[in-house]
Write a structure and sequence with these properties.
8 strands, single chain, binds guanosine-5'-triphosphate, binds magnesium ion, alpha/beta, Spore Coat Polysaccharide Biosynthesis Protein SpsA, Chain A, eight-stranded mixed sheet, globular, 437 residues
């Protein structure tokens, strides 16, 4: 019997459709799970963008759905599309999760021998036809991976801001601002690389897929661009309430990737950073589709030259974050001392602080906590799940501190706090190297 990860994620009935289509230039895929209210818009914009920017290319739109009960697939298939654009929608097979949906999209891109594959989240409200050009254009021009850049509200993307971006930047020297942004462009070559990895029975099948894609692109290709997409407006979640499972899946994948790619980040003599984009900024792509990439420290990340507008607020329940921090530190005392050793009492003291003002973890503390947990995760194979569970309340403590520091700041000003977090991870990298010995 085949194990789950060896099974195709596309159902058998889709195969003849794909064979009839034969070959294509561009696949645009959307993973979905109960996104009937937004997917029609995403599909229509994707089709318009493809026709406008790549009028002579064959294009196939794919919806890999997780068994929605709200008619998502019907809405996708009924969305407006210019003639000549094929649409394929189905329920993928395998572990339920976003990663399995993307695997199905990659399988179709590989079967159709697509030169480029773009993925767009199906809960997007701000997607524009230009996104297709900005995500696919660099791939047609020779890049392997296009990562998105957006203007986001300071409370949106807390996993990105507090761990994915700082850790990816400190480890691999690549300033990829939205490593789990969800909207990506991928080359044919990289699609095959992804499908060839033995990861599809892990958290990569769930929300680990984005950080897996970005890290693999950094470690195994390096031909990476960033696309300035403007605002990301989507069904954002309150970090205090809904991000626990996502955090666990993303962070366990981050740590798995650290173990897998130790030879990239921890072998200075290979001088890998010379081959990857960075240590400075990866090129921003916002041009006319001819593959022009301009590199700049700040980058016009809203794509319009309009950087002053504040994105719609994302609510955040700070008292709940603080309660989770305090209670979690008590509940997970044993695991914390396993991960943090001598530093566990420091965290306990911070968590038991009486006043809510200023409560939480500083950038320096948080960087050391993440490095301690990464090393503990590597050592304690049998207790990985417990370790990640125990890290969640500390992350909530970090987010609480971020939110209180950013209180009087605009979203743009809060970028400086993200920078500060990144520098803390970079400066503590020798601590990580020591732990890893
Ligand atoms: N097929 C499938 N798609 C999923 C599943 N879970 C999430 N998705 C899709 O993955 C995309 C991203 O999921 P979101 O829940 O929006 O997560 P996010 O935008 O990365 O994170 P937030 O910042 O928390 O909103 C959306 O298009 C979802 O429909 C799933 O179980 N199956
Ligand atoms: Mg979303």
């Amino acid at each position: 019997m085949l194990s789950v990860d060896e099974r195709a994620a596309i159902p058998a009935w889709v195969e003849p459709r794909i064979s009839r289509i034969g070959k294509t230039d561009l696949v645009i895929g959307t993973p979905s799970f109960n996104n009937a209210s937004t997917i029609g818009y995403v599909a229509a914009v994707a089709a318009t963008g493809a026709r406008k920017h790549f009028p002579s290319f064959e294009v196939v739109l794919v919806n890999a759905d997780g068994g929605s009960t709200d008619g998502t697939q019907d809405v996708f298939c009924g969305s407006e599309a210019p003639p000549g654009i094929e649409r394929v929608a189905f329920s993928y097979r395998g572990i339920p999760g976003k990663g399995s949906a993307l695997k199905a999209i990659f399988e179709i891109a590989a079967k159709l021998d697509a030169r480029a594959c773009v993925v767009l989240d199906s809960d997007l409200r701000s997607v524009k036809p230009e996104w297709v050009q900005k995500l696919a254009g660099p791939i047609f021009a020779g890049f392997d991976f296009v990562s998105p850049c957006y203007i986001r509200h300071k409370h949106d993307g807390t996993i990105t801001n507090n761990i994915c971006y700082p850790l990816t930047r400190a480890l691999y020297g690549a300033k990829i601002r939205q490593p789990i942004g969800g909207d990506f462009g991928v080359s044919r070559h990289l699609v095959h690389t992804y499908l060839g990895k033995d990861v599809w029975a892990t958290d990569v099948a769930r929300f680990g897929v984005d950080i897996f894609m970005t890290t693999t692109a950094i470690a195994e290709s390096g031909r990476i661009a960033q696309a300035a997409l403007g605002r990301k407006v989507h069904d954002a979640k309150d970090p205090a309430g809904e991000l626990g499972p996502m955090f666990s899946q993303v962070v366990s994948t981050l740590f798995d990737m650290m173990i897998r790619y130790e030879y990239v980040w921890n072998t200075p003599e290979l001088n890998r950073t010379a081959e990857i984009p960075g240590p400075e900024t990866v090129g921003y792509y916002g041009g006319d589709g001819n593959g022009d990439v301009s590199v700049g420290g700040s980058g016009d990340v809203d794509g319009n030259g309009d950087r002053g507008n504040e994105p719609d607020p994302v609510p955040i329940d700070v008292p709940r974050l603080i309660a989770s921090f305090r209670n979690g530190v008590r509940e997970h005392r044993e695991v914390l001392s396993l991960a943090l050793g001598k530093r566990a009492p420091v965290i306990e003291t911070i968590a038991s602080g009486t006043s809510d003002a200023g409560l939480g973890l500083s950038c320096e503390e948080w960087a050391l906590v993440v490095y301690d947990f990464a090393a503990a995760y590597r050592r304690n194979v049998g207790r990985r799940r417990l370790l990640i569970e125990a890290l969640v309340p500390l992350y909530n403590g970090k987010v609480a501190s971020f939110v209180s520091k950013a209180k009087e700041m605009s979203s743009r000003q809060a970028e400086e706090l993200v920078e500060e977090q990144c520098r803390a991870f970079e400066e503590s990298k020798p601590y990580l190297r020591d732990l890893w010995k």
